[in-house]
């Protein structure tokens, strides 16, 4: 990785972090748990990394197996996370 | 990487930001969650096209298996058990980042026999540390809320000293890993310490404080995803990871305030509880 590429990645990291700080400044207490659950589902973005890690032929390397384990776990996090959040929020509307 | 895939990642990032913003208000929250799910779907689809996943049957199998498990438990769980569910899903997310980092490490050192750049080695170590800690920490949080282990704080003498020694041990092993990347023994030491630290940092915290802990661990799993983004040089992982990492910290603070607890007090549970 060139130092220019690294600097761009750090820019992205810093700016996205500031955005994250600002995004949820005034959230009402009832939404704490759904927001936590929803952002947990977003952290399942590591599924993209898992997909890339699986991209290898054959089943002979530790690397491939770790990638597949990661993919199953990340999929559980993403699918389960969004479903659970949706269920919580559905309950809200009825009240 | 083609420009179309980069654009798809950009759209996904925008949807995550919008979705999170909409989840601040009760009215738009459900829509926001769906928007963020759409972003995730786009990111996954773009990645699958990039690696031509259709030809890799095992990838589809892993996704089907993961989706089935996720859907089953997400639909089965009772509403009162939601925090536990979030904890365990979060733990899986942390373990996934941890596994991606290790997969990449073994790919480079054992398959490709190449040396790893400094930034990448450090990112792998960070991802293993935060991911591993998030996994075991979330597992303990789950077991405490579920009543499998006592919800009351488990403390013993010299707890903080042991944590400090373990952390310093981790740092030492990390430095050696940077120097000699190919020694698998060092990686195993890093893994073991990260997993133990997750257990040790959560067991002294009382059951009532668990929601705060889960929120903090959620923030950690975002940071782990972010570190994984640095390993793979992937923008969407860094954006989504740092969004979750930063907002998770703020949310943790807000939750602490709502419960009239200070974050430091919760984290150093042992101290906080004995004072009470």
Protein topology:
The complex is a heterodimer of chains A (95) and B (276).
Chain A: H1 3-23, H2 32-43, H3 46-54, H4 62-94
Helix pairs in contact in A: 2-4, 3-4
Chain B: H1 3-22, H2 29-50, H3 57-76, H4 82-111, H5 118-146, H6 159-179, H7 184-202, H8 210-232, H9 235-258, H10 263-267, H11 269-275
GO molecular function (chain A): NADP binding; proton-translocating NAD(P)+ transhydrogenase activity
InterPro entries (chain A): NADP_transhyd_a_C (IPR024605)
Enzyme class (chain A): translocase
Provide a descriptive summary of the structure in words.
Chain A: This is proton-translocating NAD(P)(+) transhydrogenase. Chain A: Its EC number is 7.1.1.1. Chain A: Keywords: Cell inner membrane, Cell membrane, Membrane, NAD, NADP, Translocase, Transmembrane, Transmembrane helix. The complex is a heterodimer of chains A (95) and B (276). With 95 residues, chain A is mostly helical. Chain A has one domain. Chain A has 4 helices and no strands. The radius of gyration of chain A is 18 Å and the shape is flat. The model of chain A has no long low-confidence stretch (mean pLDDT 90). In chain B, 80% of the residues lie in helices and 0% in strands. By secondary structure, chain B is mainly α. Chain B has 11 helices and no strands. The chains are: A mainly alpha (95), B mainly alpha (276). Chains A and B meet through helix 1, helix 2, helix 3 and helix 4 of A and helix 1, helix 2, helix 3, helix 4 and helix 8 of B.
Shape summary of chain A: flat
Low-confidence stretches of chain B: 270-276
Report, as a whole number of angstroms, the end-to-end distance of chain B: 56 Å
Number of separate helices of chain B? 11
Give me the number of helical elements of chain A: 4
| Overall shape of chain B | globular
């Amino acid at each position: 990785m060139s130092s220019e590429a690294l600097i761009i990645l750090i820019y992205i990291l810093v700016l996205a972090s500031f955005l994250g700080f600002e995004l949820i400044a005034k959230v009402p207490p009832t939404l704490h748990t759904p927001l936590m659950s929803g952002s947990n589902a977003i952290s399942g973005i590591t599924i993209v990394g898992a997909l890339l890690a699986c991209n290898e032929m054959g089943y002979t390397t530790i690397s491939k197996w770790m990638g597949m384990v990661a993919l199953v776990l990340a999929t559980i996090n993403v699918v389960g996370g969004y479903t659970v959040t949706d269920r919580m929020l559905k309950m809200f509307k009825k009240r | 990487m083609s420009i179309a895939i980069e654009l798809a990642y950009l759209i996904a990032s925008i949807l995550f930001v919008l979705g999170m913003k909409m989840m601040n208000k009760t009215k738009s929250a459900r829509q926001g969650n769906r928007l963020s799910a759409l972003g995730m779907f786009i990111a996954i689809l773009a990645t699958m096209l990039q690696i031509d996943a259709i030809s890799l049957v095992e990838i589809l199998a892993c996704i089907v298996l993961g989706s089935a498990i996720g859907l089953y438990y997400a639909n089965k769980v009772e509403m009162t058990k939601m925090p536990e569910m979030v904890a365990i899903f979060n733990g899986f997310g942390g373990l996934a980042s941890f596994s991606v980092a290790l997969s990449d490490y073994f790919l480079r050192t054992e398959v490709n026999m190449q040396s790893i750049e400094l930034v990448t080695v450090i990112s792998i170590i960070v991802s293993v540390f935060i991911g591993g800690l998030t996994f075991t920490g979330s597992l303990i949080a789950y077991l405490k809320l579920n009543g499998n282990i006592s919800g009351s704080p488990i403390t013993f003498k010299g707890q903080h000293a042991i944590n400090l020694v373990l952390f310093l041990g981790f740092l030492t092993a990390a430095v050696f890993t940077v120097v000699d990347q190919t020694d698998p023994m060092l990686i195993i030491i890093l893994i073991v310490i990260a997993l133990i630290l997750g257990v040790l940092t959560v067991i002294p915290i009382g059951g009532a404080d668990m929601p705060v802990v889960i929120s903090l661990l959620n923030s950690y799993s975002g940071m782990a995803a972010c570190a994984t983004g640095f390993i793979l040089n992937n923008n969407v992982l860094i954006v989504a990871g740092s969004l979750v990492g930063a907002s998770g910290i703020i949310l943790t603070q807000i939750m602490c305030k709502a419960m009239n607890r200070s974050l430091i007090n919760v984290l150093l549970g042992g101290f906080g509880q004995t004072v009470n």
